[in-house]
Design brief:
By secondary structure, this protein is mainly β. The chain is built from nine helices and 42 strands. Helix 8 packs parallel to helix 9. The radius of gyration is 32 Å and the shape is globular.
């Protein structure tokens, strides 16, 4: 079982750079007693060659594993010209003590025998007769062009020049390399830093980290069978989420290649064109080739040998069934592909996933006619097709878009799919990605449609669960979703807004400031008070003790003026350095902006990072002990979390109390699509305690003045139907305004294709006449300044009346 390839590998093929502290010899004047280049062959695929590819083999003569993370193998022509460049092949993983590590390079048109599964793959076409190969600590290209200059470059761990190479170690290059011969070290791996003495020519003998060597393709070779073995794909997949053959070797598994992934976490999918009669057993499986680019094509009929593995992208996700360390024989090409399974409202069941009372569902027999996630699991690795799917989650920076195959399932007014409750999951949501680098997923907003058919294989990853890896994408039908503009407040209405501005700091580019500022000045029609979440200190993630936000707020308020808004003033309480969670070094905090032409702030000294605000009863009603100030900042419920900011304002002579919140995030909760069902919401415990703290403070204000006008708002990181909201509203101290909207408008955030509400505005009973609006400008759009939509409430200053609400 393997756990967790990082997202960078899954999506971008990025190489993590972590240099081994022990792997930096001063120069190759000091021979290596550990990692060496053990064999070099540049004749792969040449006329007369047996092997189809060039390769470089590394070896470890030491007694401990040698970490290659962040290292590279580099190649330079034997007689470098002024324009010659070192060509870089990045490495990952390690060389075991006494082990080998195989780096495949470019393939030629000749040869009949493939390399064993390489441990890394480059694209360098090495010359058969002459060249230089270096093992380098780092991935930046070397610049040396002479033996002396390269000897003084401390990044060079080992170097082999062959043929007539100018750059080599010692008295001369290794000799004898050709289309049919490599140069290799003796079995002792001795390194005297003299290529001519240390390496000799012979038939190429590539060995990979698994100890595998090149096999022939003739009959009787167990590595390359020409007849199917006894195991079929449906035997590997089995009737549960975990293969009954997990960890076992399989030989000659037949299938047709249906899709190939050539970037990131590489591999290809095969599907058995002769399915069994059990709807629970998938007929497709991923053949995982790791860093090696697959050498098969769609339509190839293949036999695959390797080891069955259940790969868990993370500890709480479901697994992907794979064949790893594969050896593949191509029997024929150009074969028809199995017909795709249609995913639509008729085929996807209404149930979401079975429950194991919080335990793992891995061993439960699949019920694909009853549960959507069981259906998707029964199709893991097989061809599927969707048609005319509506976008429910805009295209992300990772080139992913969420669609629904059940268009009538909890639709929002603007085309999304509403997340209605913990027990009513949206079964039709599916993530679409493209396997065709020439045709990426189109840039789509919520409500757009992928028209026509989208076809591909069904995969699973930790970032949303089941995904359609498209080999054919539908075309985008743009539904022209508009960013909303709310109405301007009337003279006697106090307009108060909440806006999460996503880690804004003074180092951000001006475009982010300008877009966020337009949201305030235009889309929110310049509220009188804006409660901001995620304002960082002035140098953002730089961790140097800075806690002030003056430069950040100056840039933001200047940008609002430039966008046609008023000149806002601001108030906040700077946090203690490193005490409020969020991005390390960012010192995230809540901030109030206010328009002094419309509303005044009551400044009362005493508010700081650690002093708790109190309600003070006076003959004229209730006031705050300090303003601005924080609620119970030393209570354990706020440890490593943003503390609520409380401010006392006056509008048309009357006090209004505003509480800006940013509760702890949902990070750490088990995913909706994960292996543990029902998923645990571990982060909820802390939010419920935080909500109770705010509720207690609001009640203290109301105990001193039951008609006190209190507006509690912000990013509460939880849903209207959550225990967090129950704790916050306990005793009817606060009314959640999201519940006053029509059900299909109750959202301000989109996550994994679900339109949901994490942001809220709540009001005390003393506020009877209000107009409330969620202003959709970000969450549904591929191009967004924040991942949250702002909200606004307009409160009438005059006497009691009937509450009403609206949207625009």
């Amino acid at each position: 079982m393997r756990i967790s390839r990082p997202r960078s590998v899954l999506l971008a093929g990025a190489v993590a750079v972590t240099l081994s502290a022990t792997a930096l010899p001063a120069a190759f004047a000091a021979p290596s007693s550990t990692a060496v280049i053990s064999e070099v062959y540049g004749g792969g695929g040449n006329s007369g060659a047996t092997l189809t590819r060039d390769f470089v083999e590394l070896a470890n003569a030491g007694s401990a594993a040698y970490d290659l993370s962040g290292f590279s193998v580099q190649y330079l022509p034997g007689a470098p010209s002024a324009g010659s460049q070192w060509q870089v092949s990045p490495l990952t993983g390690a060389v075991a003590p006494g082990g080998r590590y195989l780096v495949a390079q470019a393939a030629g048109t000749g040869g009949t025998v493939g390399l064993p599964a390489p441990d890394a793959t480059g694209t360098v076409a090495m010359a058969a007769a002459s060249g230089t190969v270096a093992l380098v600590s780092g991935t930046a290209p070397l610049t040396c062009k002479t033996a002396a200059d390269c000897a003084s470059d401390t990044r060079v761990v080992d170097l082999v020049g062959y043929g007539s190479a100018v750059v080599r170690e010692g008295s001369g290059p290794a000799t004898g390399a050709s289309a049919t011969a490599s140069v290799a070290r003796a079995a002792s791996l001795a390194d005297t830093d003299d290529n001519a003495a240390d390496l000799s020519a012979g038939a190429p003998t590539p060995v990979n980290a698994a100890g595998e060597t090149s096999g022939g393709e003739g009959p009787g070779d167990p590595d390359n069978p020409t007849e199917p073995g006894t195991v079929r794909v449906h035997d590997i997949q089995g009737t549960t989420r975990v293969s009954p053959l997990d960890g076992q070797a399989v030989t000659g598994v037949p299938g047709v290649v249906t899709a190939v992934r050539t970037t990131g976490s590489r591999g290809f999918w095969i599907q058995d064109p002769s399915p069994d009669a059990d709807p629970r057993t998938s007929e497709g499986v991923l053949v995982y080739t790791g860093s090696a680019a697959p050498t098969v094509s769609v339509g190839d009929s293949v036999l695959v040998s390797g080891t069955v593995d259940e790969y868990y992208p993370s500890a709480t996700t479901q697994s992907v069934t794979e064949i790893t360390a594969p050896r593949t024989t191509v029997l024929s090409s150009g074969n028809a592909l199995p017909a795709p399974v249609v995913l639509d409202a008729a085929s996807v069941p209404g149930g979401y996933v079975p429950s194991a009372d919080g335990g793992s569902i891995d061993a439960l027999p699949l019920e694909p006619a009853k549960y959507a996630l069981d259906l998707y699991e029964s199709l893991e690795g097989t061809r599927v097709e969707t048609a005319d799917t509506r976008v429910t989650g805009a295209t992300s920076s990772y080139g992913e878009v969420w669609v629904t195959v059940e268009p009538k399932q909890n639709p929002t007014r603007r085309g999304g799919t509403l997340y209605a409750s913990y027990t009513d999951q949206n079964t039709g949501r599916i993530k679409v990605m493209s396997l065709d680098s020439t045709r990426p997923v189109p840039v789509a907003n919520v409500g757009d449609v992928l028209s026509g058919t989208t076809t591909g294989v069904l995969d699973y990853d930790s970032f949303g669960g089941y995904s359609l890896q498209a080999t054919r994408l539908g075309t985008l039908t743009d539904r022209h979703l508009k960013r909303e503009v709310t109405r301007e407040q009337k003279r006697d209405e106090l307009a108060v807004s909440t806006y999460n501005v996503e880690n804004l700091d003074a180092l951000d580019d001006q475009g982010k400031f300008d877009t966020l500022a337009k949201g305030v000045a235009v889309n929110l029609a310049s509220p009188d008070i804006v409660s901001l979440e995620e304002i960082q200190d002035d140098n953002g993630a730089v961790n140097d003790g800075t806690v002030g936000s003056e430069a950040t707020l100056k840039r933001f308020t200047d940008a609002i003026v430039a966008a046609g808004g008023p000149r806002y003033s601001w108030r906040y309480v700077a946090p203690q350095d490193g005490k409020d969670g969020g991005e390390p070094g960012g010192n995230i905090r809540n901030v109030f902006l206010f328009n002094p032409a419309r509303v005044s702030f009551v400044d009362r000294a005493g508010g700081d990072a650690t002093t708790a605000v109190k309600a003070v009863r006076t003959k004229k009603g209730v006031t705050l002990s300090a303003s601005p100030a924080r609620i119970s900042p030393l209570d354990e419920s706020w440890s490593d979390s943003r503390k609520p900011l409380v401010g006392e304002f006056r509008f048309r002579g009357e006090p209004v109390f505003v509480i800006g919140n940013h509760f702890t995030s949902k990070g750490g909760d088990q995913p909706l699509h994960g292996r543990y069902q029902a998923p645990a919401r571990s982060s909820e415990t802390k939010r419920v305690k935080q909500a109770a703290q705010v509720n207690t403070f609001v009640k203290s204000l109301l105990a001193a003045d039951k008609s006190a006008r209190v507006i509690t708002l912000g990013d509460l990181n939880d849903f209207a139907f959550s225990p967090t909201m129950s704790a916050l509203t306990a005793g009817k101290a606060l009314k959640p305004l999201i519940s006053t909207l029509p059900a299909n408008e109750r959202y301000s955030y989109v996550y994994e294709g679900n339109s949901q509400t994490l942001d809220h505005i709540l009001t005390s009973p003393g506020i009877r006449r209000f107009d409330y609006d969620v202003v959709h400008i970000n969450a549904e759009f591929a191009d967004q300044a924040s991942d949250h939509d702002p909200q606004i409430v307009r409160v009438r200053a005059d006497g009691p009346g009937h509450g009403h609400h609206g949207h625009h």
